[in-house]
Amino acid sequence: MTVLAIDIGGTKMAAAVVDDDGNVLRRDRTPTVPADPWPTFVAMLDELVADEQVDGVGIGCGGPMTWPSGEVSPLNIPGWRDFPLRARLAERYPGVPVRLHNDAVAVAIAEHWRGAAQGVDNMIGMVVSTGVGGGIVSGGRILDGATGNAGHIGHVVADPAGPMCACGARGCLEAIARGPATVAWAREQGSEAMDGPALARLAADGDEVAMAAFARSGEAVGRVIAWCAALLDLEMVVVGGGLAQAGPPLWEPMLAAVREQAVLPFLTELRVVAPGLGGDAGLVGAAALVLAGERYWSAD
Amino acid sequence: MTVLAIDIGGTKMAAAVVDDDGNVLRRDRTPTVPADPWPTFVAMLDELVADEQVDGVGIGCGGPMTWPSGEVSPLNIPGWRDFPLRARLAERYPGVPVRLHNDAVAVAIAEHWRGAAQGVDNMIGMVVSTGVGGGIVSGGRILDGATGNAGHIGHVVADPAGPMCACGARGCLEAIARGPATVAWAREQGSEAMDGPALARLAADGDEVAMAAFARSGEAVGRVIAWCAALLDLEMVVVGGGLAQAGPPLWEPMLAAVREQAVLPFLTELRVVAPGLGGDAGLVGAAALVLAGERYWSAD
């Protein structure tokens, strides 16, 4: 059995043929054409799949979207607004399951299925990057919520007195800890870092402002992790995404905040860890929507 | 089919015989004897059940507890520490399912099964009373978490700069909004109210300090509701418990905070409502652990 796995982001579109065990057999990627991504997208798929029969299609895509119907309106792809991605792929691959979920949910699924959280049935997989998102596994199943939007951990409020968030509320975790917000805060304090990787290099060299910026973001992430762990009685949180690659300047304050806040007796064993999968996580999670659908796909 | 339903709190122990539809056929209650509750408890059960054959036993009990094994250590019953309540009841009622969960989880189950949240498959039922607790239904099933402790909404931090909580963290919702904390805050501002009902009467008469106290607690509850709704993609939150009976002085600030914070597009239909069941909710939820166990009981 092989599955076509697809991971759609604002910068690139990736696809792979994945086997039963979650191994990527072959892959391709192409830059996203924001105004009209469909032609380059299907050309990539046609070349990748060629004449092979795939047994299903799994897709992770940036939100917002309708779910499970899969009309997508990814923030960074203005050419797709209410674009019927699931239906269009179902036409191209008739007779097999075609399933679509939020990209952060796909990453969480991947970590549960084949990554750092294998066998851990109560966990959150989160991505701290340009945005802050996640997916929740409870009792061994992915939570979808009423409209497929469960997992929006970036909009738990880390600090009611914090900065305004693009969503319209104040102090959301995403408004504090996403990469661009972390860089913006550092620049307000006088840093000249232009982006997250530059800020991470400065922090690694001991730059005080850069270290303070990661500490501020890491502490906010850690606090929200602790509260979500109390609410959901979690065993593990996997923290991935670009910002999470900043290493100790982010992780040490984050883990300290978790220890300080996760004090209920049932949280003493809570683990907060780095991902087990690398850049393929989105593809592996998309494949799991088909290959391990009993745990990860509750819709029709 | 009839079930023996049991609701154990620090003040009273209640029991009922409940039919398939969740109707209470007959009931009894007895004051809790904190040092040694077992003798009066079983005397009540024996009189209530008499020679009738019950088809199962469902129990809601204050925490902490081990779950699903059901050794209970209710905070307000010092005579029970690691008391094997589930096992002891299984000995008295052999051959039928005996199931036990947290009392706040039982109330949430009751509201989903027979109360305000019937047919609403993504909801939280919460109790704002001496403590602040809750239970989560996602995808139509109760969430247990790793150790049966999912639903601890009282330990989501409403205000990182808030008062210390008994759990050891700062600013937990429970530390701000539980009844005794609401009264204590009012007294710090000069109120002479001795308890929640007295404070509620003052607020109903327009007393400014009492109204401010309920506004402070209501706003904290509303904000946490909004964040949990974002995280879990909820359709409804049911707010019960003694403090929630204070009416508009609590509800208006709470609903205003929900409206202000629940701004993501998928939350526009979020409803925050009063319970559909009265004081029987704990018993009805306990019965549902047996009568509708496929949704509410995942353990052995």
Q: What secondary-structure arrangement, pairings included, does this model have?
A:
Two copies of one chain form a homodimer.
Chain A: E1 2-8, E2 12-19, E3 24-31, H1 38-49, E4 57-61, E5 71-72, E6 83-84, H2 85-92, E7 98-102, H3 103-114, E8 123-128, E9 132-138, E10 141-142, H4 173-177, H5 179-188, H6 196-204, H7 208-232, E11 236-240, H8 248-261, E12 271-273, H9 281-291, H10 293-296
Parallel strand pairs in A: 1-4, 4-7, 8-11, 11-12
Antiparallel strand pairs in A: 1-2, 2-3, 5-6, 8-9, 9-10
List keywords for this structure.
homodimer, 300 residues, alpha/beta, Nucleotidyltransferase, domain 5, 2 domains, five-stranded mixed sheet, 37% helix
Explain this structure.
The structure is a homodimer. In chain A, a hairpin with a 3-residue loop joins strand 8 (about 125-130) and strand 9. Chain A is of the alpha/beta class and about 300 residues long. The mean pLDDT of chain A is about 95. The first copy, chain A, has two domains: about 1-100 and about 280-295, 2-Layer Sandwich (Nucleotidyltransferase, domain 5), CATH 3.30.420.40; about 115-275, 2-Layer Sandwich (Nucleotidyltransferase, domain 5). Chain A has a five-stranded mixed β-sheet with strand order 3-2-1-4-7, with helices on both faces. The first copy, chain A, has ten helices and twelve strands. The two termini of chain A are about 20 Å apart. Chain A is globular and about 55 Å long. In chain A, about 35% of the residues lie in helices and about 20% in strands. The interface of A and B includes residues 151, 156 and 157 of A.
